[in-house]
TrEMBL record:
Keywords for the protein's UniProt record, in alphabetical order: Membrane, Transmembrane, Transmembrane helix
A GO cellular-component term linked to this record: membrane
Localization per record: Membrane
Biological source species: Thiobacillus denitrificans
Protein name according to UniProt: MFS transporter
The keyword Nucleotidyltransferase appears for this protein: no
Source superkingdom: Bacteria
């Protein structure tokens, strides 16, 4: 009797939804609140949030290349082992530094999985590649959107430990589904031929001024996104807003991303990248700078939703713009550099914001973040005008 094997796409979408749900649940809104319960300072909280993005800087680009040699399945399973084991480590944490170490370990899961899963889908589905990638992204965003609501509820009704047990369950289920994956595409047979090409492609992309500038715009957007993800929860908590409402505030942002991102991507294809990215950056800047002036559950929810709209508008088009600027077919290298620079920005955001909050308060920190987005808009406007 022939054994049943689910399609690769159904499996990878299911695994991605579970894995990203588990990852998001571990940080939104629980991470800054858990760090605060460990008596971490604002600066230390910035470093804790940053810790999980460092692996993305270190391994996002090599992970894709390595999967070409070892096979996609092996790399995906390696990341899923981290997804399944990391949540249990949160249960024994007693200090802020231990939390930072666990976040660093957990970061390798998303860094590897995000790169390799996208590469595997693009490699297998050439005829309907964009549709498959968009559907996969939507499934992971749904998982990412549910997590803040469940996390805030579990904190309010139970404890931090309950959140991380839920993370563990989702991570173990993702690993179980991952064991059903089949690697139909054989790994590359000639490492001597492929590796020099890998480095040559990297050099080509790094020398392209347009690609690097768009990557910096993406980094600026993710810098602010990472900072808001960490410190909007703390700002709301400082106002006396309960954890379950904080979950709704952050969840509203992610829900707006779910619905706006596919729509704005289609708009970008019709009206051009600049007409989408530039307004998105300015919407994000306005929503961030207004946060201190609407210190209520409703006000913060509306501004969080607006920030999510701006974020979705920008990120729906930056990768496409990088692809537009790519020469000689080095799309993998261009996207790898984009993701790495993005992770650098996301790493800097919480640390910079934690320092600013500690020195000058939330209003000054949010104003600085808004100024970064406005600067990115000016940079992109000059690039596209020259082009």
């Amino acid at each position: 009797m022939k054994s049943f094997h689910p399609s690769f796409f159904v499996l990878i979408a299911l695994i991605g939804g579970l894995a990203i749900f588990s990852s998001t649940l571990s940080k939104t809104p629980v991470l800054p609140l858990f760090a605060l319960s460990l008596n971490a300072t604002p600066a230390e909280i910035g470093w804790i949030v940053m810790a999980s993005t460092i692996p993305g800087i270190l391994i996002s680009y090599p992970a894709g290349a390595l999967s070409d040699h070892l096979g996609k399945r092996r790399m995906l399973l390696a990341s899923l082992v981290v997804f399944a084991t990391a949540p249990f480590l949160y249960l024994v944490i007693e200090t802020a530094w231990q939390l930072m170490a666990v976040r660093f370990y957990h970061g390798f899961a998303t860094a590897i999985f995000g790169t390799v899963a996208s590469a595997a889908i693009a490699e297998r589905y050439s005829a309907d590649r964009a549709a498959r990638l968009s559907t996969y992204s939507s499934v992971t965003i749904v998982g990412r959107s549910i997590a803040p609501f469940l996390g805030g509820t579990l904190i309010s009704l139970a404890s931090f430990g309950a959140v991380y047990i839920a993370c563990a369950i989702a991570g173990v289920l993702a690993l179980g589904a991952g064991l059903l994956l089949r690697d139909d595409t054989p790994p590359a047979t000639s490492k001597k031929r492929e590796l020099p090409h890998f480095w040559a492609s990297l050099r080509t992309v790094l020398r392209d001024r347009g690609i690097m500038l768009v990557s910096l715009v993406e980094a600026a957007q993710y810098l602010v996104f990472g900072a808001i993800e960490a410190f909007l929860a703390l700002f709301a908590a400082s106002l006396g807003i309960p954890a379950w409402q904080i979950g709704i505030i952050l969840g509203a942002q992610l829900l707006s991303i779910v619905f706006a991102k596919p729509l704005m991507g289609r708009v970008s294809d019709h009206v051009g990248r600049r007409r989408v990215i530039l307004p998105g950056l300015l919407i994000g800047a306005a929503s961030v700078v207004l946060l201190p002036y609407f210190p209520s559950f409703v006000g913060l929810s509306v501004l969080s939703l607006a920030f999510g709209l701006g974020f979705a508008t920008v990120t729906s088009s930056t990768a496409a713009l990088v692809a537009d600027l790519t020469k000689d077919g080095h799309y993998g290298s261009s996207m790898g550099v984009l993701r790495t620079v993005m992770d650098v920005g996301q790493s800097i955001g919480p640390v910079l914001t934690g320092f600013m909050v500690g020195v000058a308060g939330y209003a000054s920190a949010f104003t600085l973040l808004a100024a970064i987005l406005v600067t990115a808009a000016l940079m992109l406007g000059l690039l596209l005008r020259d082009a």
